[in-house]
Amino acid sequence: MRCVMHPKYSEKLRDPRWQKMRLKVLERDEWTCQYCGDTESTLAIHHKYYIAGNEPWDYPLEALVTICANCHEAEYQDRPGAEQSLLKAFRAAGFMSYDLERMAAGIKKMKLLHASEVVASAYAEAFELPDVQQQLLSDMFDRLKRPV
User: Fold this and answer.
1) What is the Cα–Cα distance from 84 to 40, expressed in whole angstroms?
2) Where do the structural domains in the chain lie, given as residue ranges?
3) What is the distance, to the nearest Å, from the Cα of residue 45 to the centroid of all Cα atoms in its chain?
4) pLDDT in tens for each of the 148 residues of the chain?
5) d(CA 87, CA 92)
6) Distances (CA, A) of 58 to 19, 54, 61, 72, 88
7) Got the DSSP string for 21-39?
């Protein structure tokens, strides 16, 4: 017997508070998948992150995004492997915990909606630093000197 105090997540998605929030997100995103641009498939509202104890409707609009069923399924299937790949790349590149904390803090401060914009902003910021520019140029010339 299911406890009335702890409804299933699928039941929470029928709650009027979630339905109202869902409609706001769909309208903001113009009923379009924000990853692939699909307007024909079934659309879902994806939580970019979760906070323990929060109800589905207890998030700011910026934490929610419209995505199609295919992108939603791919996100759930691919995310764990992608996160592990990212962590391995950081470790292999020698990033220390302090570096990761600084990157996380910088990303949290960005007011961008799409990951591609975050990556582009990080590159743009890095390219403005003289030491980064010098290192990139040095790396490029080193590669040019190598025999083909």
Assistant:
1) 32
2) 1-94, 96-148
3) 14
4) 444 455 688 898 899 999 999 999 999 999 999 999 999 999 999 999 889 999 999 999 999 999 999 999 999 999 899 889 988 988 888 888 888 888 888 777 766 555 666 666 666 666 676 776 677 667 667 666 766 5
5) 9
6) 12, 6, 9, 20, 33
7) HHHHHHHHTTTS-TTT--S
d(CA 15, CA 12): 5
Q: What SS3 state is found at 43?
A: strand
CA atoms within 13 A on the CB side of 5: 0
Alpha carbons 125 and 90: distance in angstroms, whole number:
19
The one-character DSSP state at 93 is: T
